[in-house]
Amino acid sequence: MIGWILVAMLSIAIIIRFFSWYSADERSLLNQTAGLVTSESAEELGVTPPPETFGSELFEIGLYTQANEIFPAGTVALVYVKDGWRFVEIDYLPGRTMEEQRATYRNFPQEEAIVDDSTFVVVTLDNRARCIDYEDKIPNRCEVTRQLLIETESHLIVISADGAHVTDGELLIIGRSIISPITSS
Prior knowledge:
Order of helices and strands: HEEEEHEEEEEEH
Oligomer: single chain
Shape: elongated
CATH architecture: 3-Layer(aba) Sandwich
Strand content: 25-35%
Number of helices: 3
Number of domains: 1
């Protein structure tokens, strides 16, 4: 009797594994929520990708057409990858201020830096990078450990560091390269 139960359980496990493999959707590095639309061009969505990305490549572009618990409607997200891992995610949040965003992180350490007359804020969300090494062709990722916040006239820009794959200095240089064309025009 126990042998039949074990055979039945093993058969069910194999069938479930087969159907999950067979119907697996392609994994995305974007936050999957209602209203997410992918795009081929950041410029079409009204944002200019940073000129400095430390050798990472633009992998995915998303537009959040509906507000959700993380993003306001109209948020554009750019995901960069390097060496098979998500490197940074750059989110352009329309209508959100630095103070509103900082208030959501009031329990996390925050550090200010002034760069080119702009205030940058680095928020440390976690010191332990937990990573998932998938065995597929999509880049792997870690939890976001730090975020750099930059307020411009049209957007709050949030640059999220993927685990330990990017340093604070690299975050600041990427941020500086984003705002340099904005402040010089």
